Fold this protein.
Amino acid sequence: MLIADSLTFEIGKRSLVKDISFSIRPGELLIILGANGAGKSSLFRLLSGEKMPTRGHIQLHGKEIAAYTVAELALKRGVLNQQNIVNMAFTVMEIVMMGRYPHYSNSPAVKDIEIAQQVMELTGVIDFADRSYLTLSGGEQQRVQLARVLAQIWDVPNALLLMDEPVASLDLQYQQQTLAIAKMLSKRGFMVVSILHDINLAGQYADRIIMLKNGRKWYDGTAAEVLSSKNIYDVFEINSDVYTNPRTLKHFFIPRNVSLNINSQ
Amino acid sequence: MSKKVLLYLVLIIALFIASAFSMGLGAVKIPIKEVLIILSKKIGLFADTPVSAQYEGVLNIVRLPRVAMGLLVGAALGISGTAVQGIFRNPLAEPGLIGISAGASLMAVIIIVLEVALFAGLSNLLGYYLLAFGAFSGAGIAAMLVYQISRTDGKSNVATMLLAGIAINALAGALTGLITYIADDQQLRNITFWMLGSLAGATWETVLAIAPFVLIPVLLLPRMGKALNAFSLGEVQAAQLGLKVNQIKRNVVVLATMGVGAAVAVSGIISFVGLLVPHTIRLFIGVDNKHVLPASALLGALMLTLADMLCRTIIAPIELPIGVITALLGTPLFLYILIKDKKKLVL
C-alpha cells in the first residue's frame, strides 16, 4: 500500500505540488495526467524518494519512505525515469542486469540471469541482448530501460513501479505493449503509477486516473468517472469530442483544432 | 577460455617479458639471461651461478627501482583513469585533460619550493610522503572542482567538463609559473621535470614512498566495479538501484586521486595514459568496470614500461621525457574519439 498524505513541495516561493493526497493498493494501475508544468514530474520525484516533500508524508507498506535506506527501497520499488543518458557502450544484457544489482553482491545467480532474459523477451529487446546500448534507437533504448526496471522488481511481491512518461518515444505497438505489461504486473499484485500524456491510452488501461492542474489534484477516479470533455477542458484547456468505442464501449476523445492567437495588424 | 581470462593472462605474461627486457636496457646493456639469473638469485635460485658484479649493481640500484616505478605509476594512472571516467560517466574524462594532474603537480611544486625552504632538502622518505600527500590533495581539490562545475541536475555535462579542465590546467599552469620565480636553480630543474613527466628520478626511496598510495587504489577500486556500472545510468538511477551515491562518489574520487597524486608526485604529469589504457581495454572486453578496472591497472603498467623503454632507446644516450611518448600516442586517440562521437557531444 502506498499512501501520499497532503504532499506539498516548494522550491523557494514556488509551490510545485500543493496538498496532494491519495493512496493506492496492490493490484491498482494509477495514471497521472496533466498539462505541462502541472506538477506531474515533481509529484513523481516525491513518490520515488528522489526529493523530500516540504510538507506531508509518503508511506510505503506502512513505513515512511524517508525511513527506508536507499538499499531497502531498491528492493521494494522500481523507477523508470523520463530521461536516461548513458555514454558508455554497455551491452543491452549488461544494462538489464544492472536491474538485478540490488539482489546480488558479487556474481549474479542463475535466477538473476533468468529474470533478465524473461523481461528482455517481454519488452522485445532480447534479439539485441549483446548489442551496444549506444547503437540502439531512442525507442529501443527506452525499452531496454524498462526491462532493467522490470528486472529489478520482477520477483518482489507487491512491488511499486513508477513510470514517468514510459511511452514518450515508443511506436504504437510498444506503447500498447508497455501499458499491457504495466496492467499485467498490477494484476500480479504490483502497485503501478505512471505519468502519461495520451488521454486515450490512459482511458484504455488505467484502473484509476488522477488529473493534476497547477500542482493540485483536480480529479481522481476511474476513467469513466473522470474522463469527460469538460474535465479535459478544465485541465488541458482544449476542446474535445467524445466518441464511444463500439467494441469495448469505452469513451475516447479527439481534440478539436485550436485557433492560434496571432496578432495580425 | 573466456576473452577476459585470456586478456588477463596475456597482460600478465607481457608484463613480465617487458619488465625483464626493460631491466636490460640502458647505458650498460645487461643480457636478458643475466637479468633473469640475477632476479632468480633473489629468490634463492641459481645461487652458485657467477654473475658480473657490475651488472648486479646496475640492476639493483638503477634498473629495478626504475622498472618498479614504471609499473606502479602506470597501474595508478590506468586504473585511476577508468575510475574517473566512471564517476564522470564519460570516456573522455582523463585526469590530465580535466586538470586533476595539474592540480597534483601544482601542489607538488608548492611543496618542493616550501619544503626546501623550510627543511633544507627533500631527500628522505618522509619528504617524499609529504610530496605524495600534497599531490594527492591537489588532485582531489581539482577533481571536486571540475566535478561540481560540470554537473547540473545530477548529470555531468561533457563540454563543461572539458572546458573546466582547460581552465584548471591554465590556472595551475599560471600558479606553477609564478612559483618558478621564487624557486632556485635546483628547484627549477625539478619543476621542469614535473611538467614533462619522467621516470628518471626513480630510486628505491621514491618507489617505497608511492607504493602504498598506488596499491590501495589498485586493490580497492576493482571492488567498486558494480557501483561504477550503475553510475553510468545516471546518479538518480544509481540511487534508485540502492547505491549511496554520495558516499561512492567520495570514495572513488579519493582512491582515484590518490593514485594520480602518487604518480604525479614522483613522475610529473604523464598525460593520456588514463585515456589510452581504458579505451584499449574496452575494445577487447567491453565496458563492464568489474573487469575494466583491474585490466586497466595491468595494461597501464605494461604501457608505461614499454613507453619508458622507448624513451630510453630512441635517441640514446639522451632520454626523452616519457610524457612526450604518451601524448604522441594519446592525442590522436583523443581526436579520434572526438570525431567519432561528434554528434553525441552536441548539446
